[in-house]
Specification:
The protein has 200 residues and is an alpha/beta fold. The protein has a single domain, classed as 3-Layer(aba) Sandwich (Rossmann fold), CATH 3.40.50. Helices cover 34% and strands 21% of the residues. The protein has five helices and seven strands, in the order ββαββαβαβαβα. It has helices at 36-44, 86-102, 121-132, 149-163, 184-199; strands at residues 6-12, 25-30, 62-67, 71-75, 106-114, 137-142, 173-175. The protein has a seven-stranded mixed beta sheet, with helices on both faces. The protein starts with 5 loop residues before the first strand and ends with a helix.
């Protein structure tokens, strides 16, 4: 898939105000500072579509972007948000949960994980929550340019060892780097294949 157009549509904290049409959408979520905004900008070839910041927790709303006039990319607030108040965290958690529970247009979530770190409980717990709620998702390992191939392989194996203790299969996953455009084609082609099935 080649992205020819990517435009901001709406930001809000109320799932009921999200777009009403039946266009398929894909939600991107991860811990603060995982590189979500950079990944979105890399995928869309737009340097400032999603706001990047040196301050984790910048995304604080449900952000819809229409891609190629045919599907939505949804940028969600991070979990484990840094430097925000406890009341803000509760608000985020509430509308993030509502989004995943109520949004019927959601085709798949993408859970972003920093490949440099060993499996973190907060990421594993969120994946388990998605599984319990029957929400399809893939893992996107970010910042792959920061590690050598063997280290990447080892860290993915760590995830497999843990996830396969309670899952029948390892969730679908992608290895990416925003600065090197690693994984871009694989990820976009995957979305395109789902969109094709969606139309059928």
């Amino acid at each position: 898939m080649k992205i020819k157009s990517a435009q901001f549509v709406i930001s809000n904290q109320d799932v009921e105000k999200c777009p009403k049409n039946e266009i398929p959408e894909y939600a991107f979520i991860g811990r603060s500072n995982v590189g979500k905004s950079s990944l979105i900008n890399m995928l869309t070839d737009k340097k400032s579509l999603a706001k990047t910041s040196g301050r984790p927790g910048k995304t604080q709303l449900i952000n819809h972007f229409i891609i190629n006039d045919s599907w939505y990319l949804v940028d969600l607030p991070g979990y484990g948000y840094a430097r925000v108040s406890k009341s803000s965290k509760k608000t985020f958690q509430k509308f993030i949960t509502a989004y995943f529970e109520k949004r019927k247009q959601l085709v798949s979530a993408f859970v972003l994980v920093d490949i440099r770190h060993k499996p973190q409980p907060i990421d594993l717990n969120f994946m388990a929550w998605l599984g319990e709620h029957m929400i399809p998702f893939s893992i996107i390992f970010t910042k792959a340019d920061k590690l050598k191939p063997k280290a990447i392989e080892n860290h993915i194996e760590d995830y497999k060892d843990i996830l396969l203790e309670s899952w029948e299969d390892m969730p679908n996953y992608f290895v990416t780097s925003s600065s090197k455009s690693i994984g871009k084609d694989d990820l976009l082609n995957y979305i395109e294949s789902i969109n094709t099935d969606f139309k059928d």
